[in-house]
Design goal:
heterodimer, A: alpha/beta, 6-stranded mixed sheet, 10 strands, globular, B: mainly alpha, 10 helices
């Protein structure tokens, strides 16, 4: 069995301590090293709160979180943050530097890394997100996709073992979203980086190894995209599944089970479907 | 907003642009101090030659510097007028009660005018040829000794550089809010002063709100990237002291000697 890099048990959190209603109630899950997990759920289901709890921006009321074997608490949160990085939805408000490379270096400056090593790391991170040519540019003057790349590079330079994306791809146009997703996929495969992607884009979620479904602060289900999407019909399905269901209504020969995009394409080619 | 020259940066390749911000800052501050050594037309002449040569070296058009002086011209003239009216001595041209116009007064008025203008010119040269971020780095480096006195120099310079970096965002946002208000029929710059001030309220409120949100995002972003105030940090932007910079300091020393030689003892001659 592969190592568990994230372990969350009995996590409870509420913003307003006077309130009986908690934002997150009794969350239990773990993520293996190199796994890609998507967290989905409606607005207000506690997805972003979970992200902030994972990096210690919010303090949990009860339960425990352990990242790369370190138990997260107020004393260890700085150490934990060297293992887990969080990319936010809006990169614009997080730029510290006035050039791309300055901003990428910010996290490294914080851990007091010597200049030579810092320079290498910045170069490496910029190469990973394909931004080497723009290193002297002002990040706030870049396009949305490029901005999010800069933010990502700023985290990647720290070489975290876990990357949390909090709706990081939502604001991007479809083109740059696909590109960035591809970059992330490669990182996930090649360097065994664990990715926890919080999203309400079902197509993005369908690409994940596993889906965690949150509803009103509770973890309702966890499983492979195919299982989750077939079991919870109320969820807006990813494109391939939506298409399958539509075809199913038209013609009965369409298979009854969830299909990934690839499976659906293969089936369509073989079926000589005539409508 | 666009008319303000002091504090702006003009991209360029001149020798002054390539200099270390620390050298420029030191030389700039030193120049303001050494100005007060001059006390006759010869020494002021030397200072003017120095100022004009430096301005020429910056590669920025002369008219830009004149525009830099313009917002302060009334303050300068006011001071000069006071100096002329209330200094006595030498040949007196006019004497009405406490007001005396004398040749001493006129001369010292001219000197004060020169001092003001040269201070503005030289500090404009420094800001025009130095990127704001380099300027904050320079200030940070020069204030380092204050750390011994427990003054949070690094924090202050980070604050400075983050504020600088948010200026364009805030300007953009102001524009957006103003456009949004215009679309709802607000007219800016119309009516009496009270009405004009009233139209500013719906601009400032959303700006404040969004600035607070930005600040929170920023703090979250900085914290997740491991920023802890008071913790030792390394710096990615490196300052390099070059031959040019030593040369610049050398020039300042020569200027000082020149002024000491040219100045005359006594007050005004």
């Amino acid at each position: 069995m592969t190592a568990r890099v994230v372990e969350v048990s009995n996590l409870v959190f509420g913003y307003d301590k006077r309130d009986k209603e908690q934002t997150l109630t009794d969350i239990n899950f773990s993520v293996n090293k190199g796994e890609w997990v998507a967290v989905i759920g409606h607005n207000g289901s506690g997805k972003s709160t979970l992200a902030k709890l994972l990096v210690g921006l919010l303090e949990m009321d009860d339960g425990s979180i352990s990242i790369a074997g370190i138990n997260l608490n107020d004393n260890t949160k700085w150490e934990v943050r060297r293992h887990i990085g969080l990319v936010f939805q809006n990169p614009e408000n997080q730029f510290v530097g006035t050039t791309v490379q300055d901003d990428v270096a910010f996290g490294l400056e914080n851990i007091n890394m010597p200049y030579e090593e810092m320079n290498n790391r910045v170069e490496e991170a910029l190469k990973m997100v394909d931004l080497s040519e723009l290193r002297f540019h002002d990040p706030s003057r870049l396009s949305g996709g490029q901005k999010q790349r800069v933010a990502l590079a700023g985290i990647l330079a720290l070489r975290p073992s876990v990357l949390v994306l909090d709706e990081a791809l939502v604001m991007l146009d479809p083109g740059s979203r696909r590109e960035l997703l591809l970059t992330l996929k490669q990182l996930n495969k090649s360097s065994d980086m664990t990715i926890i992607s919080i999203t309400h884009d079902m197509d993005e979620a369908a690409e994940a190894d596993r889906i965690l479904l949150l509803e009103a602060g509770r973890l309702v289900d966890s499983g492979k995209p195919s299982d989750v999407f077939s079991k919870h019909q109320q969820l807006e399905p990813p494109f391939s599944e939506a298409l399958r269901r539509m075809l199913k209504r038209q013609k009965n020969t369409v298979p009854d089970t969830y299909m990934t995009e690839e499976e659906l394409v293969n089936w369509l080619c073989k079926s000589h479907l005539k409508m | 907003m666009n008319k303000l020259i002091l504090g702006r940066f003009f991209p360029g390749e001149s020798i002054l642009h390539q200099m270390d911000p620390r050298a420029k800052l030191l030389a700039g501050v030193y120049f303001i101090l050494v100005l007060f050594v001059a006390n006759n037309w010869q020494s002021y002449g030397l200072l003017w030659i120095f100022t004009l040569v430096v301005m020429y070296l910056s590669g920025v058009k002369f008219s830009v510097y004149i525009r830099g002086v313009r917002p302060l011209i009334w303050l300068i003239l006011f001071t000069v007028t006071l100096q002329i009216l209330f200094t006595s001595g030498g040949k007196i041209y006019l004497d009405v009660g406490p007001i005396t116009v004398s040749n001493f007064g006129i001369i010292s008025g001219i000197y004060i005018f020169c001092r003001f203008v040269m201070i503005i010119f030289i500090s404009t040269v420094v800001t025009l040829t130095t990127k704001p971020i380099d300027l904050t780095d320079g200030i940070n480096a020069l204030l380092k000794p204050l750390k011994r006195l427990k003054i949070p120099v690094d924090e202050i310079s980070l604050m400075l550089s983050i504020s600088l970096r948010f200026i364009p965002n805030l300007l953009d946002e102001t524009q957006k809010v103003m456009d949004a208000q215009r679309a709802r029929g607000t007219e800016f710059g119309e009516g009496n002063l009270l009405r004009q001030m009233k139209t500013l309220v719906p601009i400032f409120l959303p700006l404040f709100a969004s600035s607070l949100n930005r600040a929170e995002d920023m703090a979250n972003g900085m914290e997740t990237r491991g920023y802890q105030s008071g913790e030792k940090r390394s710096t990615f932007r490196q300052l390099a002291w070059k031959r040019k910079d030593t040369l610049c300091i050398g020039t300042m020393i020569i200027l000082t000697f020149g002024l000491i030689v040219l100045r005359t003892g006594g007050f005004i001659h």
